Structure formats: C-alpha cells, structure tokens
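Help: read this over?
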Amino acid sequence: MAYDNICKYLAEEYPAEFVRWLSGDKTSASDITVLKTELSVEPIRADSLTLLQTANQILHLEFQTLPSSSPPLPFRMLDYWVRLKRLYRCPVEQVVIFLKSTNSETVFINEFTDTNTTHRYRVIRL
C-alpha cells in the first residue's frame, strides 16, 4: 500500500512527466490539469487522473502492488472508464502499472470481456 500512495503522490505532483513517459506527448505542464480522483455514482477513487487540455484527453493511471483485487481489476477499469467518459465526455487513456514482480497470470490481462462488451487498457509491469 505504501508504494501505491507514493506513486499516487508522484503522479499528482509530476503529471507532465507521467504523460511524457506513458504517451510520448510533449504537452507542457501548463496544459495539464490534475483532476479529482473521486468518480460519481457509488464513490470510487481512481489512483491518478490527468486532463491533457490540448488533446482534450484524460490519462487514468492505476498503480497495483497485488495482481488480485475485489472487484477484479479488468472490471474496475471498465467501471472507471464509463464514469470518466460520462463525466468528461472526452477520450480516456488507461494504464495499469504493476509495481511488484509476480508469477501471476493476472498481470498479463489487459481487457475486460463480457457478453456484449470488450474494454481494453494498457498494462506496464515494472
């Protein structure tokens, strides 16, 4: 949990660096707004939300130390995406960053699939 909080702090304090690292976008810090992480409906909190004003796009980061979660991470990522899309009505780029090494197959999952829905997000394993 300590890793997670440190990463959340870093993403909030240095959003431009995370944007450059994860998307290659050279957006200046003055064009980036760090957004509130609480999303509507039943309150859930994303780890990091950054608005790229020039691209009118949100970069959503989730930091994970463990491969398992409740609800499962793929479903959570879909839930976050739907809430962000509803609230901001702009493109949403999602990245899950696994902070610890593991042998779990779960860290290789990068999508949620159900009857009529498939939702994909990026995964980085450190």
Summary: Strands lie at 32-34, 38-39, 44-45, 48-52, 57-64, 92-98, 111-114, 117-120, 122-125. The chain has a mean pLDDT of 90. The first strand starts at residue 32 and ends at 34.
